[in-house]
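Case study B.
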Amino acid sequence: MNSLKIDNLQASIGDKSILRGLSLEIPKGEVHAIMGPNGSGKSTLAKVLSGHPDYEVSGGTATLDDDSLLGLEPDEISRLGLFLAFQYPMEVPGVSIANFIRAALNARLKEGEKIKAVEYYKDLYAHMDDLGMDRKFTSRSLNDGFSGGEKKRCEILQMSMLSPKYAILDETDSGLDIDALRVVSDGVNRMRNPERGILVITHYQRLLDYIVPDYVHVMSEGKIVRTGGKELALELEDRGYDWIKQEAVAS
Amino acid sequence: MISPSQLDVDRDKGDFHYDTDYSFDAGIGLSEDVVRYISEVKKEEPWMLDFRLKALSTFEKKPMPTHWATDDLKNINFDVIRYYLAKGQQPSRTWDEVPDDIKNTFERLGIPEQERKFLAGVEAQFDSEAAYSNMKEDLAKEGVIFVGSTEGLKEHPEIFRKWFGKVIPTSDNKFSALNSAVFSGGSFIYIPPGVKLAQPLQAYFRINAENFGQFERTLIIADEGSEVMYMEGCTAPKFETSTLHSAVVELVALKGAKIQYVTVQNWSNNVFNLVTKRAIAEEEAEVRWIDCNIGSRLTMKYPGVILKGRKARGEVVSIALANDGQHQDTGAKMVHAADETTSNVVSKSISIGDGRSSYRGLVQMPGHLKGCKNNTECDALLINNKSQTDTYPAITVQGDANSVQHEASVSKVSAEQIFYMKQRGLSEAEAMSLCVNGFVNDLIREFPMEYSVELKRLIDLEMEGSVG
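Model:
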């Protein structure tokens, strides 16, 4: 099984049901996009798959290759190979980017293995150069006082350093100006390869001009209500979401 | 043989004890007889006995300071404590001469190893008296004195008596009075003019017996233009009953002298640690208290500097970590008593579980002075919802030729921060450790390297199992 597979997933927060039987399969090598109106459950999907403790899963399955994700701790899910680029990355004062990424890489090593500092920094600097990040960033506290664009670059830097099997990008375009959008998109595009599946969550079609998806899904009321090619995104841009909602209700 | 694993540093490192036969035992409870017994065992002169008896009476008259401090103080039962326990031997100059049970204790704590590696001198106190006291030979030739307080009083009365009790009067507080009545052990240090010690002197305080009170008394005099760094560490086994540690530490930095006093306090969680520490800094002298409190049930400690001479500098750098069942009540006192004196206080506390940390700061600048400066930064980190922190600054500044700056912050490690870090593959404990180490990192660098490594590991170990 070489896919991130979600089947009939149902999840709620408190009394509020948010995911209502969502099914989706992202095979390795493909980029999928989920679009949908506010409140349709897009970010919830990302958090539930990552094991966020606030959500309760009441039914369905989610598997990464052969492993079930449901019920696992967020760090276990991460180490299985799922990366979430956050819509709002958290600020962690006092913890430098370099130390943080190193700790995250360390957490993936077998006992007795060690990261070699010289190679680590070489690798880190190369990825930072690709993202146009100043090397001074390595010693800055994680996301602390970063601009929106800097935070998103930092997410992509972490993603490229951790090299996950599957990546979910939650509204990575929000808060980005056009230049930052291009840099971040280039970063994601460099990571497209036959060994990796990517799910892009976005509210706007604009991002998909830069990260061109293989499939576009429309989410509404906690479910995927329509799936199409990249042209579906353009249609949504033209017509808005209402017609899809109406179709969904009609069917 | 000591296996390497036994030398590993951890919060339970001190949690062992050897049964020891004591030749001298003042019995249980506090009375005039106990005070006389201690003075007699030490063969003290009448003035010292007199000093002790007056202190006992002061102690008895003073109320517990529970009108401002925690009610937990009421749980100290002075009647069940043993005030003096010693084997009666002179402090040895070589480890070979130290009795086996005591030597094994300090071997397990890694003291002889540290001495070989990076120390200029070591004093190791076991219950009431120093079991070992030694210093590098060349320092003795330069006139440096580093002995226990008993020996200091006996061998160097002219220096000892001049400063003893002058920085911290007996009546300063109830516990300084108690210490003055029953004190035993601690270090007496004199650094001659212009002598600068390249390596630190270290004292290690070990409580071995149950229901015991340790009351060491340390007096450090740095003569004009001299420099010294003194470090102290401490441990005790975890007994069911509570143990009392109540030290008095007096520092005197004469003109242009520099004293750094480093403490890593890692008492077990049954110890009441009620310590009075104060320094006098003469003209252009500098005193730095670098203080880390990780252990104990209740610590009350507010290192102070009386800035007595022009351009004197005082500093307190403090880290406190309060875990379940612990209250770290720490702070600083800066008393400006001359022009152009400066003081700096940086305090960081971490509260975990139901731990509580308090900061109490006192800054005084009378109106007739000019050009004085104080800067205080006081940051607290809360790990979860039950943990608690509070800050009590008392700043008295008069006149308009001085400046004071006070900054305080409280932050909390949020569930979303932890989720974010876990999403990158870190376990909850690893995520917490990173946050906590990040919070105190800039202060840990102030500790000597050998201590900062130990501190980081101690903090990591404290974070394990503290989450949830």
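The longest strand of chain B covers residues 271-281. The remaining cases will be described in the next quarterly update.
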